[in-house]
Structures are given as C-alpha cells and as structure tokens.
Amino acid sequence: MAEPLVKHDVFQAIADPTRRQVLKLLVDHEMPVNVISSHFPMSRTAVSKHLRILAAAGLVKERKVGRETRYRLEPEPLQDLQRWLDFYSRFWENKLTALQRYVELGEES
After folding, report:
1. Which InterPro entries does the entry link to (predicted)?
2. For residue 7, how many other CB atoms are within 10 A of its CB?
C-alpha cells in the first residue's frame, strides 16, 4: 500500500539539519539520491525519506532520467519564507532599538 501524500509545511521541512544540508547540496545542480546519500552517514532509504518531506513542502522537484530520479532545489517556497520573515523582522528591529535606547539611558543615570 502506498504511503499517503502529506503536505509538509516549509518550516517543518527546514527544521531538520539534514534536510537543510540536502537543500544546500542542491543549490547549484540536481543530483540523484545515491549521490545525495553519499554525503550523509545514513542509509539511502533515510535520505529518500528526507527528500519526500522536502518534495511535499515544495522545496525539491523530481525528474526521471532513464531509471534514475534526480532532485533539484525549488527555491520559491524559500523566497515566500524570506518575505514572511522580512515582514516580521520589523518587530524584532523595533524591540532591539527599544532595548538599545533603554540600555543607553540606563548607563547615563
């Protein structure tokens, strides 16, 4: 029986350090799973599971070349994530500016 397709959130997908490393490997060119798995101290099956999670989050795409499946980075979800972070970063910057003012005023007292 086939495993049901679960849509993974980009945050969930990139939360794992192995998956972040996989994405880094795929930045410049596509790779088959055997080449990707050679970079990790885990089984090819474990790497395939990570690739399925990344694919479900839309972060990698598969392409069949003969018998081989190649994976490539799909950066759009990361760009969406960056836009989301940019929107909320203004709140962090405001808090840091307020903290800086507080610290500077506290030193003058």
Report:
1. ArsR-like_HTH, HTH_ArsR_DNA-bd_dom, HTH_MetalResp_TranReg, WH-like_DNA-bd_sf, WH_DNA-bd_sf
2. 7
